């Protein structure tokens, strides 16, 4: 069977440039034949999905070393888009540089703030100054095109090969168990799932026991809450709580728990019920 033309392929967005970890997550979820469409910012990815210019977008929401990617948590709350799947991607960082630059001569390194945070110990030990860029692949491309003096990038091996850079050192992340959790918004990938999750966003009264009552709706039914974090609202010292619970909304226990939680909330929104790869 002939391959579909590029106009027929599923178009899925990611932030950054080709060679970014977002593109790697995209292909792990949607397969090699998808058309990966880069956008300069996370907001642009959300807008492309919302406006129908792409079928889906792939976005990082949490690093096992650097913590939540709060910009994307806030953008998810801002947009009327549902989470459609999740993937935990093992991140292998490389120190990459233009040919001819030796490891001992590197004084600065460019990368995304999350990548810099994941390699902070390595950079301190080597006395290398971290400089934030919008994306790991953007950092790699900038180092390749502009070759700033004594400057390298932290990026993937794929980025190094794509932009003609030398890998000075591999595995520069501070932990061998370095993962980033990616979500998709828009059309879900056509694949089997290991398990299911449901994500919620809710607000409660600022009074003793308010959050306890919401969490009790899940613990009382034997359901595991795998993530709980708060994000500030526009009003001072008022928060939106974001919660992930294991199980699909179609599961009667999960549905009953969500209904019970809703009774204890001011507002509750289901952000998605989806598969985890």
Write the layout of secondary structure elements.
Layout: E1 11-15, H1 21-30, E2 35-39, H2 42-50, E3 56-63, E4 67-68, H3 70-78, E5 83-90, E6 94-97, E7 108-111, H4 113-118, H5 120-126, E8 129-132, H6 136-146, E9 151-155, H7 157-163, E10 166-170, E11 179-186, E12 195-203, H8 210-219, E13 225-232, E14 239-246, H9 252-263, E15 267-276
Parallel strand pairs: 1-2, 1-3, 5-15, 7-8, 7-9
Antiparallel strand pairs: 3-4, 3-11, 5-11, 6-9, 6-10, 12-14, 12-15, 13-14
Would you give an account of this structure?
By secondary structure, the chain is α/β, with parallel strands linked by helices. Helices cover 29% and strands 34% of the residues. It has 3 domains: 11-90 and 178-186, 3-Layer(aba) Sandwich (D-Maltodextrin-Binding Protein, domain 2); 94-170, Periplasmic binding protein-like II (D-Maltodextrin-Binding Protein, domain 2), CATH 3.40.190; 195-276, ACT domain (Alpha-Beta Plaits, 2-Layer Sandwich). The chain contains 9 helices and 15 strands. Strand 1 (11-15), helix 1 and strand 2 (35-39) form a beta-alpha-beta unit. The two termini are 28 Å apart.
How many strands appear in the DSSP assignment?
15
Class per helix and strand makeup? alpha/beta
Q: Per DSSP, what share of the residues sits in E-state strands of 2 or more residues?
A: 25-35%
Name of the CATH superfamily of the largest domain: Periplasmic binding protein-like II
CATH class of the largest domain: Alpha Beta
- In CATH, the architecture of the largest domain is 3-Layer(aba) Sandwich
**Mean of all residue-level pLDDT scores:** 94
Proportion of helical residues: 25-40%
Number of domains: 3
């Amino acid at each position: 069977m002939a391959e579909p033309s590029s106009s027929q392929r599923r178009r899925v967005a990611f932030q950054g440039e080709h060679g970014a970890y977002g593109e790697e997550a995209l292909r792990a979820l949607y397969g090699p034949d998808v058309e990966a469409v880069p956008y300069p910012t996370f907001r642009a990815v959300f807008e492309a999905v919302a406006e129908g210019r792409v079928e889906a977008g792939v976005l990082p929401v949490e690093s096992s070393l650097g913590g939540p990617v709060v910009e994307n948590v806030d953008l998810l709350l801002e947009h009327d888009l549902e989470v459609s799947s999740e993937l935990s991607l093992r991140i292998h960082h490389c120190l990459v540089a233009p040919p001819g630059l030796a490891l001992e001569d590197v004084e600065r390194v460019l990368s995304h703030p999350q990548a810099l945070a994941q390699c902070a110990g390595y950079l301190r030990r080597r006395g290398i100054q971290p400089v934030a860029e919008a994306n790991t692949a953007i950092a790699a491309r900038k180092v390749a095109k502009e070759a700033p003096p004594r400057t390298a990038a932290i990026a993937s091996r794929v980025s190094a090969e794509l932009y003609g850079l030398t890998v000075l050192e591999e595995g520069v992340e501070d932990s061998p168990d370095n993962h980033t959790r990616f979500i998709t918004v828009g059309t879900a990938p056509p694949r089997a799932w290991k398990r299911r999750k449901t994500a919620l966003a809710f607000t409660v009264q600022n009074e003793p026991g308010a959050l306890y009552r919401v969490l009790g709706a899940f613990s009382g039914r034997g359901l595991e809450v795998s993530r709980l974090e708060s994000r500030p609202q526009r009003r001072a010292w008022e928060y939106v709580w974001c919660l992930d619970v294991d199980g699909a909304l179609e599961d009667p226990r999960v549905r009953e728990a969500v209904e019970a939680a809703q009774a204890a909330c001011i507002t509750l929104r289901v952000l998605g019920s989806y598969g985890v790869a």
